[in-house]
Structures are given as structure tokens and as C-alpha cells.
């Protein structure tokens, strides 16, 4: 952990990601949150690669977004469980990001997601200057804010309209359209990393599930097996 900043240092009145703590000393609350973040990141990569052929975007997973100067400094950060920022470099001056510092980059995340581990009160807290909901809505300004509750197999998605979050209604598939990304967000019941639970996942605009790299490889393997079986039925050796 980085040591606390001397805020009176005239040379660094506005510290960057290399000078701010990358952790507040807490730990992930359960064994589901890390796989959930990986699932979201892995499956949306093909969409982001098409959207950003220049590679200019970053994804944070339980990483800090610094929004104000405080002492200690980590009190001025929120750490969404998953967020995506468009049109920013994945590295800063060749260094891996330790956090995302709004006063250095100014571009707000397009979407921030929180995974509820308690009763959801923290994620919906609108207390000025303290509550997560208020901070996202009034300061960090993600265009979309999602609250995912695995125990309820549900997700709430809000869109920032006129400076306030408006709850989005699901479409006919029960998904929530993230129009700028060309995707939908919803709940998928299935097995991932040896856990059979309701997972938060992406679909495309036609309602097709966005697959992970492993799922795409398995799909291709099954396709090849079907083709080989069809060839054998016709008396053709698929190995030739």
C-alpha cells in the first residue's frame, strides 16, 4: 500500500494514480465477486475491441475511482466492483493503472456496477457526500449504474438523465439495454467456474448471449464434432 500523501507539498497539489493508495485495506467479501468480474470482462472483450480498434479504453475491477481530496486519501475514492471507461489509454505513461483519478482524466465511466453482498442499502445510499448512489450520481457520473444482487437473482440499472439517475425498465427479454455499447445486461442462470448461480451477463442487441473465450472455444469444438459426424455419415473421412 502506498503511504499517505503530504497534501501541503507544493510540487504535488493534485496527486496522480502513482501517488494515491491503490487499496483501502479491505478484501473481497465473498468467493463469487472475483469470478463475476472476470465473466463480465472476458465476454465483452470482442465488443470493446470492435468499438475501440485503437485499444483506447480501460476496465476496472474493484479498483478505486478518486473523486475528491481527503486525508487519508483513500476516503476520497469509490471502488465499483466493475466499471468501463471509453476513450482513455489502458496504460498511463507506460505504467499499469493503480486507480482512476477523475481530476487527472476527467472522462467519466460509461457504466459502473456494484455487486451487493449485504442488503443493498450501501449501494442505494443517497446521503450527500457519503452515500454510494449519491457519489456516482452527483460526482463520478457514470452514464449507467447497475446494482446486482446474486441472492435475489436481480439487477437494477439506472441511466443518468438530466443529472439524475432514472431506473430503466427491462425489455421483453428481461434485459436492460446499454445503448451506447450496443449490448444488454441481465441475469443468466448457469455454471461458471464451478458455481451454479444467477450470474450477471451481457447479451447483444439481438438477444444473443456474449460468450467467454472458453465458451466460444467449446462452441467451436462442438461445431467441429458435428461436422465430422456428418462427414462420416456420408462416408467421408473427416481427417483427410
From TrEMBL:
Q: Which UniProt keywords apply?
A: Coiled coil
Show the coiled coil region(s). 210-237
What InterPro entries does the annotation carry? Uma2
Give start and end of each Putative restriction endonuclease domain. Answer: 26-188
Carries keyword Coiled coil?
Answer: yes
Q: Which domain of life is it from?
A: Bacteria
Q: What is this protein called?
A: Putative restriction endonuclease domain-containing protein
Amino acid at each position: 500500500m502506498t503511504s499517505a500523501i503530504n497534501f501541503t507539498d507544493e510540487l504535488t497539489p493534485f496527486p496522480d494514480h502513482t501517488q494515491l493508495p491503490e487499496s483501502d485495506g479491505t478484501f473481497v467479501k465473498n468467493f463469487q465477486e472475483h469470478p463475476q468480474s472476470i465473466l463480465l470482462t472476458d465476454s465483452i472483450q470482442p465488443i470493446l475491441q470492435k468499438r475501440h480498434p485503437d485499444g483506447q479504453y480501460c476496465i476496472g475491477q474493484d479498483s478505486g475511482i478518486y473523486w475528491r481530496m481527503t486525508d487519508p486519501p483513500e476516503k476520497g475514492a469509490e471502488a465499483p466492483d466493475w466499471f468501463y471507461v471509453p476513450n482513455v489509454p489502458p496504460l498511463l505513461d507506460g505504467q499499469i493503472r493503480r486507480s482512476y483519478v477523475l481530476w487527472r482524466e476527467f472522462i467519466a465511466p460509461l457504466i459502473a456496477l456494484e455487486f451487493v453482498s449485504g442488503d443493498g442499502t450501501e449501494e442505494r445510499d443517497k446521503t450527500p457526500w457519503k452515500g454510494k448512489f449519491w457519489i456516482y450520481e452527483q460526482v463520478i457520473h457514470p452514464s449507467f449504474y447497475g446494482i446486482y444482487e446474486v441472492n435475489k437473482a436481480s439487477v437494477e440499472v439506472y441511466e443518468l438523465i438530466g443529472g439524475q439517475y432514472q431506473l430503466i425498465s427491462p425489455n421483453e427479454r428481461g434485459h436492460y439495454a446499454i445503448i451506447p455499447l450496443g449490448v444488454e445486461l441481465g441475469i443468466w442462470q448457469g455454471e461458471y467456474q464451478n458455481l451454479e448461480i444467477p450470474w450477471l451477463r451481457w447479451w447483444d442487441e439481438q438477444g444473443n448471449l456474449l460468450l467467454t473465450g472458453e465458451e466460444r472455444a467449446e462452441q467451436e469444438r462442438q461445431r467441429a464434432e458435428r461436422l465430422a459426424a456428418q462427414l462420416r455419415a456420408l462416408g467421408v473421412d473427416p481427417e483427410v
